[in-house]
């Protein structure tokens, strides 16, 4: 049986309903398909070797931590030991919060957090609705010894100050700063992550 990868996508949070509605009114829309590394590219590179599970978390455009927690835990009966967890953006913050507050029911092989916001000091977004991290994150490394965080040096959404904050709280984890990834990891390929996963297989 193939080892599993469980990937938690990103999302947004808002302090008020008005802010959320303003976001919807001004959101840029397009009929063009979005090409993202976590879709076809991930399947192409890892689909033959891994079972890739992608929960669609509730109301990602106006995410609530408690909703995500409930839905996340619904997947536990389907998860096998030695699962790999990947969280992108808000999905990374979600995994950091969950794993710092709860004992995961299965053995985790690796955790990869991709540009996870650390706190509510983001340039143009709010990190609210229950996603605030506790001060002690050490339980993340209790749940999994192998934790890596990826950040882009040119990320306009989650600046490198957040990487520094995670480094202080998770001294036993690896923080990787990439200069070749532009922006908030909105790229079609992510070979650095693929290499890490294959090496740990």
From TrEMBL:
Single GO MF annotation: hydrolase activity
Ranges in coiled-coil conformation: none
Pfam family for this entry, one: Ser_hydrolase
Matches recorded under Gene3D superfamilies: alpha/beta hydrolase
InterPro entries recorded: AB_hydrolase_fold, RBBP9/YdeN
Name of the protein this chain belongs to: AB hydrolase-1 domain-containing protein
Origin species: Candidatus Falkowbacteria bacterium RIFOXYC2_FULL_36_12
């Amino acid at each position: 049986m193939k080892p599993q990868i469980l990937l938690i996508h990103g999302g947004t949070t808002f302090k008020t309903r008005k802010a959320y509605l303003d976001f919807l009114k001004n959101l840029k829309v397009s009929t063009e398909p979005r090409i993202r590394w976590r879709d076809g590219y991930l399947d192409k590179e890892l689909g033959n070797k891994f079972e890739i599970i992608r929960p669609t978390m509730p109301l990602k455009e106006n995410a609530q931590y408690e909703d995500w927690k409930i839905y996340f835990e619904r997947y536990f009966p389907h998860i096998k030991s030695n699962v790999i967890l990947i969280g992108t953006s808000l999905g990374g913050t979600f995994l950091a919060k969950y794993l710092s507050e709860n004992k995961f029911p299965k053995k985790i092989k690796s955790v990869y957090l991709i540009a996870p916001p650390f706190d509510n000091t983001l340039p143009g977004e709010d990190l609210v609705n229950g996603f605030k991290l506790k001060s002690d994150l050490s339980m993340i490394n209790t749940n999994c010894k192998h934790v890596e965080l990826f950040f882009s040096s040119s990320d306009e959404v989650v600046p490198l100050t957040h990487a520094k904050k995670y480094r202080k709280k998770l001294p036993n984890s690896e923080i990787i700063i990439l200069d070749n990834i532009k922006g908030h990891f909105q790229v079609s390929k992510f070979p650095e992550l693929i290499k890490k996963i294959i090496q740990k297989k």
